[in-house]
Amino acid sequence: MKNTQARHVRNRTSSTHRPETPARSRDRRVQKTKASLHTALIGLAREKPYPSIVVKEILDRANVGRSTFYTHFRDKDDLLESGIYDVLRSLQDLPRRSSAPERLVAFSLPLLRHIDEHRRTAGPRMGREGRATMHAHMEDVLTTVIADQLATAMRVSRAETPMDLVARYVASTFVLVLNQWVENDTEWTPAEADARFRALAMPTLNSLFNP
Question: CATH assignment of 20-77?
């Protein structure tokens, strides 16, 4: 009886406190390294024009080796877009029953809140040129993400408007509103900026799904 209880305790303990596997440990290190590189790039972009940033500066600030950097990224633009993808993946959380148009713009409010938080708390303000570069890459990433979602949502649609054009329209509209908000120091809350984006984007999306 005691042996049975002992085995039960050992099994319960082992299932609760599983040792970290080498693969999980490696994944954690990779994520930590990428986060350090993303932070270093954004920090440098707040201090100097984005085009003048070189990879060596990013590596020195993040304390990451060159071979490690090129294992994961082609260049600083690839690093920047990877960071945007990571932010989008971490922010989106929408009920499954949401309508297709709602799912396509679900990124907006969480992303605006994320940007607003960093605007208010993160050191020196990024220059106009740096913001323009960041926003251009953000538009490209959003276009790709939205196009993928549209391809799935509109699989049996007979809509005549090319889906890549719709995706670019939605992404560029978001960046247009973002620029208006940031560049002009418009006193909108993230929710107010999101409402303006939706007022422009949703009629087009609704027309695709409810012609």
Answer: 1.10.10
